[in-house]
Design brief:
There is one protein chain. Helix 1 packs parallel to helix 2 (41-50) and helix 4 crosses helix 6. Strand 1 (30-33), helix 2 (41-50) and strand 2 form a beta-alpha-beta unit. This protein has helices at residues 15-25, 41-50, 66-74, 87-135, 139-153, 157-166, 168-171, 173-180; strands spanning 30-33, 57-61, 79-82. It contains eight helices and three strands, in the order αβαβαβααααα. It has 181 residues and is mainly alpha-helical.
Amino acid sequence: MRSLGHEPIGPACDGEQAIVMARANLPDLYLFDIEMPNVDGLEAATQLADEGLRRPVVVVTGLDDPTLIERSIASGVSAYLTKPVDSRDLDAALALAAARHAEFRSLEAEVDRAQQALEDRKLVERAKGLLMAALNLSEQDAFRRLQQTARERNLRLADVAGRIVEQQSLLDPKRKRQDAH
């Protein structure tokens, strides 16, 4: 590993120790033998990912078992090697795992941005509806009012919409009539 530019933190005597070491040292990637005692390498990778410690994962095995490939995919493994492993294969697997992990992180961030955009859009639609009902505006006029307020106050459209939704009781025409009595 050192010859490939990586500083190992192991070896671990079993999967449980590998998990403890990974938690304590927060390595950049995991290289696990699938056949570790107590907790196998696939379960170790899954446990660490479930704890928010997802990293690129390369697994090594000496077993010829097609179900291990399926389990590896399900466990989020990025590269799979069979023994004996030479340094050229290991280097390629580590590079592949790192690249796949970076791609995965990028896709996760893209999904988060899309979800936030959807939530913002729902909030803007709700605020438009409130303005339309309270001020008897068309949808276009309500949207223009939101845009204008956002520009004037140097806020995001979703922030203005959020404030309107939070203060919707002030826009409620029924409440205005009740307050006048």
